Amino acid sequence: MTAVARGLRRPDGPAKLTGTAVYTADTKIEGVAYAVLVPATVPSGRIAHIDTTVAAAAPGVLAVLTHADMPRLNLIGTPPLGQSVLPVQDDRVRYEGQPVAMVLADTAERAHYAAGLVGVAYADAAAQPAFGAGEPVTPIGGLLVRPRLMSRKFNAEVLTLKILASAVASGSRRRLAGSRFKVLAGPDDGVGDVDAGLAGADTVVTATYTTPDRHHNPIEPSATLADWDGDQLTVRDATQWVFGTRMVLAAAFGLPADHVRVVCPYIGGGFGCKGFVWPHTLLTAAAARVTGRPVKLVLTRAQMFTSCGHQPATRQTVTLGATRDGRLTAIRHHSVNPTSTFDDYAENATDGTRWMYASPAIAVATRIQRTDRPTPTPMRAPAEGVGMFALESAMDELAYSLGIDPVDLRLRNEPAVDPMTGRPFSSRPFTECLRQAAERFGWSGRTCEPGSMRDGDQLIGWGMAAVTMNTFRMPSSARVRVDVGGRTVVEVGTQEIGTGLPGVVTMIAAETLDVDPGSVEVRHGETNLPETSGTFGSSATMGVGSAVAAAAGELRAKLDALGQVGGYAARLANAGLDSLEAEARWDPAEQGGGHSIHTYGAVFVEVRVDADLGLVRMPRCVATYAAGRIINPLTARSQIIGGITWGYGQAILEASIFEPQLGRFLSKNLAGYLMPVNADIGNIDVSFVDDADPHASPLGAKGIGELSAVGVSAAIANAVFHATGARVRDLPITIERLLKPAGAD
Ligand code: MOS
């Protein structure tokens, strides 16, 4: 068996376990100053006065910077900036938690102490109504290309950054710094006549579903360490994209890219909040320039709730029409989400509805509502992660309304081609996933009547959902070298986010060169290495992996040209060479054109609901995925388990309550923001169907990281209905929502 078929334990594991893997905040630099941001305590208005005298006189304080003395930074042409407005540049306050000052001191403790001594007086604080308070919603669109084009571009471009880049190219400064920034959903779109489809249906179900604001909460908070040497800037940053961070820093300080080096070998999770570049990174670099010292900043846990995005709440309405025998005649999916007053972030919740089911008529639309809050951002399984909760809950409601088994209903609506675009699917073994997971779960033993599977005071529910995710394919490059000592070195700029990318590229290089994985060393995580895309959009295995395969393939050809006899080391020695290397780039624009490329899965869960207390437990979950060729089964399975756990959190626990009177997220800590722990999670059975997709990447690989977080919340909500007869359409499924008498909305 090849190394790739067996799976590889993480080569990065020992360094992480023993603490020798260096994260941004761990990095020690001589003479560093510690920076702490002072957050605004009001959601809007302006700064009338800042008193820095007490803070400046506190022990160890080196400087207190406000908008009066912070350098002005250039915002032109700077995607992937997380928000269009940079704070500490003027006296405006646009969201609670916005930095209004920065304190620098000789220790972190002294900086934190002095930050509490900065006195700020605010004026004109008139907050916008919070989301859902009946305010007008705004259509999005404008600068966007049409969604059909967009979905093709999505496949070939760096996430939606292409859209941001086109906004920069076609827009003025005002346009970028004002509206239309960070629009991540398409304008209204559709196929066929939905009204006619609904009029001709035997059954119509329509319902509104909501998902709450959520925060990424990686264990490692965002951190930056900036160090200037003349006009050369080195920044260690907790980022999902070292090259994107370099792009923004270079633009902000008016430097050529090669004057900026960004280093990030490891991050302790990101889930999207480190995918874009946020103000703290730029302000830290600016402070280092002003003070002439290296500056380190680590966001507090509370600041993580206002400084690097969040997943916005959504309110989604789904209408499905179907014939008596369960064939869809129309699908309408409408979503609205809150965004900041200055950026148009639109959660692309209707995306999966475009291609999931066959229907002669489909209509999708997204709206935004402006509120006083920080700009939202993608969070693990954006779009489908929230949208499939609504679509798959609605499919369950339709199944009950028709009296058809939920699995059968999905099988009856399997499309032959992409229903919105008419394009062929690159690969779509969705029905295989459905059948395999149903079989492993024992679905045929289910009695469909709600409340019919009671076990003492435990109400048992079985529920399922379809899973899909877009496939984001991003270009990357890699360098591979073999030396006369028999060592193989793989060099890629990408950072390790925690998913096990060093193991994946080790396996790909080892297989391509036919060498022992133990002889492969991976160097990663900085901009002086070959350029790669970000670790987001579940794209790194495809992008970075394909580049490594290409480089290793070229290297193998070079080594074979030295002669086919003996190992590589002997061939190099015979040729009088110390080493030989090859560098290659993979560009998805050259592959897979004209196909509808996605990943799929089916998730089945059993819940047990305490009949008296309404507590929902998930003793078991069975899920089967079609996600391209699986490179490392060990870490793939780990990722899926993490995603399903994340989905359980979405279903049952997670919500960032927004307090409308104060205009702020209420509980900025992990005590007030609930996430699953081991005791919450039962047995998770993960399997994959064979799905090497030659249209997606030369490896046949697609992405898995976000796919596994999709559909779980719908499967759980559907199981809760099966257990209790209560249809909970608002996440999370808290005890009070479950115990609410039917019809008491
Ligand atoms: Mo993910 S939300 O693309 O980091």
Mean pLDDT: 91
Radius of gyration: 26 Å
The proportion of residues forming helix, as a percent range, comes to 25-40%
Strand order of the largest sheet: 3-5-1-13-10-11-12
Count of DSSP H/I helices: 19
Shape: globular
Broad structural category: alpha+beta
Nutshell version of this structure?
26% of the residues lie in helices and 23% in strands. It is α+β, with helices and mostly antiparallel strands. 57% of the residues are buried.
Characterize the structure shown.
The protein has 745 residues and is α+β, with helices and mostly antiparallel strands. It is built from 19 helices and 26 strands. The strands form 6 sheets. It has a 7-stranded mixed β-sheet with strand order 3-5-1-13-10-11-12. Strands 7, 8, 9, 14, 15 and 16 form a 6-stranded mixed β-sheet that branches. A hairpin with a 5-residue loop joins strand 14 and strand 15. It is globular, with a radius of gyration of 26 Å. The termini are far apart. The relative contact order is 0.13. About 5% of the residues have low confidence. The structure holds dioxothiomolybdenum(VI) ion (MOS). Dioxothiomolybdenum(VI) ion binds next to loops.
Give the SSE map.
Elements: H1 3-6, H2 13-18, E1 33-39, E2 45-51, H3 53-56, E3 61-66, E4 92-93, E5 99-105, H4 108-115, E6 119-123, E7 138-139, H5 147-156, H6 161-170, H7 173-177, E8 189-191, H8 194-199, E9 203-211, E10 223-229, E11 232-237, H9 242-252, E12 260-263, H10 279-291, E13 295-298, E14 314-322, E15 328-339, E16 362-370, H11 384-402, H12 406-411, H13 430-441, E17 458-470, E18 476-483, E19 488-492, H14 501-513, E20 520-524, H15 540-561, H16 568-574, E21 579-586, E22 598-610, E23 616-626, H17 633-653, E24 658-659, E25 664-665, E26 681-688, H18 712-724, H19 735-739
Parallel strand pairs: 1-13, 11-12, 15-16, 19-20, 23-26
Antiparallel strand pairs: 1-5, 2-4, 2-6, 3-5, 7-16, 8-16, 9-14, 10-11, 10-13, 14-15, 17-22, 18-19, 18-21, 22-23, 24-25
Helix pairs in contact: 11-18, 14-15, 17-18
The chain binds dioxothiomolybdenum(VI) ion.
Dioxothiomolybdenum(VI) ion binds next to loops.
